[in-house]
Amino acid sequence: MYLNRFKSSVWFPIAVLLIAMTSIQGGAALAKTLFSEVGAQGVTALRLGLGTLILIVIFKPWRLRFSKEQRMPLLIYGLALGAMNYSFYLAIRTVPLGIAVALEFCGPLALALAGSRRISDFIWVILAVFGLYLLLPLGKNIGSVDIKGAMLALIAGGFWVLYILTGSRAGTDHGPATVAVGSLIGALVFVPISLSAASSELWHPGIIPIGIAIAILSGALPYSLEMMALTRLPARVFGTLMSLEPGIAALSGMVFLGEMLNGLQWFGLLAIISASVGSTLTAQRNKATIESITQ
Description:
Blueprint: H1 2-7, H2 11-33, H3 35-59, H4 68-91, H5 97-113, H6 119-135, H7 147-170, H8 178-197, H9 207-230, H10 235-242, H11 245-257, H12 263-294
Family: Belongs to the EamA transporter family.
InterPro entries: EamA_dom, EmrE-like
Membrane topology: Multi-pass membrane protein
């Protein structure tokens, strides 16, 4: 009885989304523990390869049909998905998980603010740039952030932007099932690349079960939970909650990996989260205003 009431309450999709974000970052932390044995590339091969197999079983992509106009966006979407995973795992070899996710988040944040002329949005830009300044070692030692790893996280954010732009076009008719096709495209390219640089320990019997856990925690489970939350939450609330992901990543890094951030890094992380929350709230408010005027 209590469970049924909870499922029908407003708190259920919020709890589901928080679980999804925790699952993704828990999966990333688990993946990082394997780096010393199979390398970042080996983990990428496990994540993409096994994750794709799980998605294929769930969504059965061979039943889908894509129009001629959707095929090129679908191809770019799949390649962006694979490249995003590949560059992100290379980034977290040397960069704390929370900082890497915050840097990656700058991609979607830049997309949300691109072309804006509102004064409020310039505040979010300044706040995000300030957060980047605190997170990156720009000419002075403010922490132990590796600049190459930081650049890889930003590159992953760039591929995330491409993933968003092309995914909305490729998935018009098939929704979340498009992820299975995109993941297959990405896996066909980046799994062989990753395997070529992976350690031979990748094939150890004890590694595969951990790889399956990573694939579930970082892919199949959160994708399903996010879709459940997205259908029950207003876009403004969904976007605002998703902005908390860098903070969840930082906590995951602390709890599971012992990655401690200094005060300035936490402040930079908070600045980027605030910029993301602010841009989400402003964008949704302005969208609602425009729609009310045009009706």
